[in-house]
Amino acid sequence: MKFSQEDFEKAREQLKLLKTDPGNQVKLNIYALFKQATEGPCKAPKPGMLDFVKKAKWDAWQSLGNLPQDSARQKYIELVSSLVAAESSQVEATPPGSKAAYETLEVSTKDNITKIVLNRPKVKNAISTKMYDEIVEALEEAAKDDSVITVFTGNGDYYCSGNDLNNFTNLPANGLEEMAKNSADMLKDFVDHFIDFPKPLIAVVNGPAVGIAVTLLGLFDVVYATDRATFHTPFSKLGQSPEGCSSYTFPKIMGVSKATEMLLFNKKLTAAEACSQGLVTEVFPDQVFQKEVWARLKAYGSLPKNSLALSKQLMRSMEKEKLHEVNSQECECLKGRWLSDECMNAIMSFFQKSKL
Amino acid sequence: MKFSQEDFEKAREQLKLLKTDPGNQVKLNIYALFKQATEGPCKAPKPGMLDFVKKAKWDAWQSLGNLPQDSARQKYIELVSSLVAAESSQVEATPPGSKAAYETLEVSTKDNITKIVLNRPKVKNAISTKMYDEIVEALEEAAKDDSVITVFTGNGDYYCSGNDLNNFTNLPANGLEEMAKNSADMLKDFVDHFIDFPKPLIAVVNGPAVGIAVTLLGLFDVVYATDRATFHTPFSKLGQSPEGCSSYTFPKIMGVSKATEMLLFNKKLTAAEACSQGLVTEVFPDQVFQKEVWARLKAYGSLPKNSLALSKQLMRSMEKEKLHEVNSQECECLKGRWLSDECMNAIMSFFQKSKL
Amino acid sequence: MKFSQEDFEKAREQLKLLKTDPGNQVKLNIYALFKQATEGPCKAPKPGMLDFVKKAKWDAWQSLGNLPQDSARQKYIELVSSLVAAESSQVEATPPGSKAAYETLEVSTKDNITKIVLNRPKVKNAISTKMYDEIVEALEEAAKDDSVITVFTGNGDYYCSGNDLNNFTNLPANGLEEMAKNSADMLKDFVDHFIDFPKPLIAVVNGPAVGIAVTLLGLFDVVYATDRATFHTPFSKLGQSPEGCSSYTFPKIMGVSKATEMLLFNKKLTAAEACSQGLVTEVFPDQVFQKEVWARLKAYGSLPKNSLALSKQLMRSMEKEKLHEVNSQECECLKGRWLSDECMNAIMSFFQKSKL
């Protein structure tokens, strides 16, 4: 006999400290070994078919046959040790909350929630080329980590002021044509990552949102907003056209006519209007916004991870192909827009005004 | 001459008592024979093209040419007799309101409305395996009967508390795998019957609705609810995933974000919330609910039957294929869920709590 | 030297009077020629990559190389003259606001807005066969003209009372079958023109709307209504079925259940109800309706034309194929309805009542 009764008692205690549920099959196994170790082979009468739980336990115990009690005890201790070892190695591999270092984002994980914070408050969290790249990277990381849900929010007064127009001034060697092509490729890849994200994706809109920060909301699963938030997509004023799949998601969410007022005629919505049109799930007074929303998110983070992910994927799968097609068409249309007089005039006029 | 003038007068009286409209062609024929029998061949001037009704009547009379008045009278009497005979044989074949006997439902037809009542009030109308089968049978019967619309409602305080979890405890010989497969097959066939139902289908939600009783509402054409009703789909708490095509119909009805709160995050809606989100057509105060709803339904039942059925089928045809595909995917996903640890833990926990 | 300094100064003045923006490429060219003419070859330091506007201007000037100042001045004068000439010839070709003469419509263009007024106020703007044809013609004209948006409205108290039932009384030689076929063909072509219209299409609903005037609203991009407006589609009462793609657009806009109440069960909506169901974008008090709506439309008309047209086409392209398919199915269904007893009875009854 390699293990003492003391080791057996210690294993029982360690079992209670495990943080990760080892799954039903393992738990039934532990139960059976414990019974076999302490009472010997199963002699209990077979439970009725209707008693689902008792029957499963009885089957597990019964399956050990005439395994000696000492062997059962030894296997019990070994099984618990392996579970404890697996858990501590996991903890070492990924220290809680740590993420790769980002320049334009703050990313952390806590309470089964991965939180991605847009972090350029001095420019109202405008999305620079660097930030586009980092968001893609953060989404890829979040898709693979242990979190149950993923949350986007902004640092400071703004949620996000949209595309940083300075992105347009970085003319590559081959001029406008190449810039338009590169930008369209980058945008397509960026939006594709939102379409394909496999877990529930939640926006915590802590202030005004503009342009692509608004259109992308149609690809989120839940959108909570402070009553200070506004929603504005002034595309036509800039000679541009809608992106982020909004030409498809917005008519679906709010009907063609309200979508047209926003996407073509530059109507800016209050948080209450965005909520009544279905773009925002719920609006909270600013004073209690963070507290109430995070209490709710914490509860969501405690729900069964796979059930949530599969349910989200089920809802998304119905239109994933369509969304990728829409994204392609929108990027193609924008590429043409960026080379158009209407757009160039509007952007020149923007920079001329901003220099006054 | 086989028929007397008296027979002719009697036929005129019988005609007034007919309950079934014999159709325009027959009515024009009756009109023409009557005119021919009483006035002889048509000598009236041809009406103008614009006078639709007169022209149709004139054509019918004219088409009898020089048929002798006696022959016209005889044909008139024969035609009316055949209509009267057809009507009385119909009445004998299907005594009014009678239906096959059901164990878990009450089914009857009145005022052109087939009413299917969920009738297990002691268990809040939870849907047992037997009830699934009987609902399928009742839908098949209602599709074929003479009714104009079909109505679902519940007996007692609840509309329906959803799937009876006891269905999970009837383990077949080959265990869980087989149970999961059988349940998924049954569910798919059940939901398919709602997708394919050819007439307007109306839910009269007389109290709280849970789970599949809520998700199926997305496949109804109209949903009237008492203000006592609530709508709750706690799938993820049970480690499960949405069914009844709700992963497609709910985002379509209320937008992705409000659908996600219900289907993933277990939000329970009041009747007013369900109405403002489009899941419920109209809410009524409980005191007047039955009276007002049935007055309205009676009016619907008096509308042209084929016009309603074809209009409903037109609306449904746009997405029927999609709905069947969604149903398959949802059932496949659920089959996997039922064998998962998340689901088994949740159901075991439910039965353990319910034994305390 | 063909041109004097005086000609050069005159060209500078003419340039300021141009009404049409000649496009960025031309403007950069004008800028470069002016600099070359007045300062000689470009000697300015190359601007940084980040200064988008300066860089474009510098490139244009630089590209003229060592072109002599006199030649630059001459080319400048020629370029401006050609722009002035192009503009005045355009003005002659299409006198402002004039349109082909219509019998049932008033059509005009002003402030970049083409306005199509339904103009049979004595019959509440019911759509006669002639009006169907003229609307198709007006849409074809508006699609090609210089306007930015197109607006429909009605003359008098009604927006439009729907299909003129007198259309049914013009029986062609081959009778009902042919009438049904002709009507279905005409309807299909009519609705196709709304599906394919390439610019933002806006309805200004100045009073009650009935039947096809309501269903077509689902194909408009924005719908503004006076609070006097009502929306009524009593198809089933007439034994008919929905058209104008409403069997697809209405469920998409307001959910299946509210669409069913309108399209199957003849529910008449107030303007406020139509707005909360998403069919109407915004409702205005009748006293300020025209003033407020037209101020808004004028602002829309001043936005970049191509940006708006392409954005609208992007939104429409996602479902254009589906809409044409729906239109075909609806017309096919109606063709059957028009030959049915239910429909013939209802129309006969309508005319009989209206003769009392």
Automatic annotation (TrEMBL), chains A, B, C:
InterPro entries: Acyl-CoA-binding_prot_CS, Acyl-CoA-binding_protein, Acyl-CoA-binding_sf, ClpP/crotonase-like_dom_sf, ECH/Chromodomain_protein, Enoyl-CoA_hydra/iso, Enoyl-CoA_hydra_C, FERM/acyl-CoA-bd_prot_sf. It comes from the Eukaryota. The keyword Transferase does not apply. Keywords: Isomerase, Peroxisome. The keyword Transcription does not apply. Residues 4-89 form the ACB domain. GO terms for molecular function: delta(3)-delta(2)-enoyl-CoA isomerase activity; fatty-acyl-CoA binding. One of its GO terms (cellular component) is mitochondrion. It is found in: Peroxisome. CDD domains: crotonase-like (cd06558). PANTHER family: ENOYL-COA DELTA ISOMERASE 2, PTHR43684. This is Enoyl-CoA delta isomerase 2.
